[in-house]
Structure formats: structure tokens, C-alpha cells
């Protein structure tokens, strides 16, 4: 279980996978020579140019965004456990989302959803890059 004496927010893959950066968004930055645009292009280059994916999730940027603006996400207070014995789930976090789940002993703020458009606007704005919500519809 997450056994921390401080407030903790878990931003899981189920939520971070809702915030996608698309190839078209990356391509829209091609003429931008700012350090920020170059950084975004280089960080995403392998996935888009080598592996040929069309979108990538903004896992770490969303976790940072939630630390800055906690209301970007919907959350619940629940116990989080790390599965250490399962043959197929070893290392995964487990949260009991059933309505009759036992009350948490050591509650963690667990993200259940995200305002993806608002986060992406914040992400691009923070980097000083242009953002168009219509370009994000992949």
C-alpha cells in the first residue's frame, strides 16, 4: 500500500492516456525555432519518426500539471495498493473503485479523469508555444 505521511496524488496511466500529443501538433511546431519548440520536437522525435506512432501520451507533463493545478483532474480518496504477488499484475497499482469499497486507512488522492483540453492549453502556454484546441482532435 502507499504508506506515506504526506498528501499524495496518484496520476495513473488510465488518466494520463487521456491527454495525447499528436503528430499534427508536433508538425505545427516545425517552423518554430524557440528552445521550447525544439525541445518538444526532439523529445517526441523517436516516437513519431522512428516508431511511427501518431500520438503520444503526456504522462509526466500531466503529473507536473496536476501538482501545479490540482483541479485539472477529478479525484477520489481511496486506498492504493501495489500488487507484488500477482503473476500477471506484479508491480501494478490497484484501487478498489467499487461503491462498497472499505474506507481507506491511508487515503491517496486518486485521479479518475482529466480536463484534457484545459491541460493541453496549459502545457503549450507554459512552453510559450501556440495552441489550437481544434488541432488536438486526433
Can you describe this structure?
By secondary structure, this protein is an alpha+beta fold. The protein has a domain at 9-19 and 58-129. Helices cover 34% and strands 20% of the residues. The chain is built from five helices and seven strands; from the N terminus they run E-H-E-H-H-E-H-E-E-E-E-H. The protein has helices at 13-16, 23-28, 35-50, 59-68, 116-126, and strands at 9-10, 20-22, 55-57, 73-78, 80-82, 93-95, 108-114. The strands form three sheets. Strands 1-7-4 form a three-stranded mixed sheet. A two-stranded antiparallel ribbon has the order 2-3. The protein has a two-stranded antiparallel sheet with strand order 5-6. The longest helix has 16 residues, at 35-50. The protein is elongated. The model has no long low-confidence stretch (mean pLDDT 90).
Amino acid at each position: 500500500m502507499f504508506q506515506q505521511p504526506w498528501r499524495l496524488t496518484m496520476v495513473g496511466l488510465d488518466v494520463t492516456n487521456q491527454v495525447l500529443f499528436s503528430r499534427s501538433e508536433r508538425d505545427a511546431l516545425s517552423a518554430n525555432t524557440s528552445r521550447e519548440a525544439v525541445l518538444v520536437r526532439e523529445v517526441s522525435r523517436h516516437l513519431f519518426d522512428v516508431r511511427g506512432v501518431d500520438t503520444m501520451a503526456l504522462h509526466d507533463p500531466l503529473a507536473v500539471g496536476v501538482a501545479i493545478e490540482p483541479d485539472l483532474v477529478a479525484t477520489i480518496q481511496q486506498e492504493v495498493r501495489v500488487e507484488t504477488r500477482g503473476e500477471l499484475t506484479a508491480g501494478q497499482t490497484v484501487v478498489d473503485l467499487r461503491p462498497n469499497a472499505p474506507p481507506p486507512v491511508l487515503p491517496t488522492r486518486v485521479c479518475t479523469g482529466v480536463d484534457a483540453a484545459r491541460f493541453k492549453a496549459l502545457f503549450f502556454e507554459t512552453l510559450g508555444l501556440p495552441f489550437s484546441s481544434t488541432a488536438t482532435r486526433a
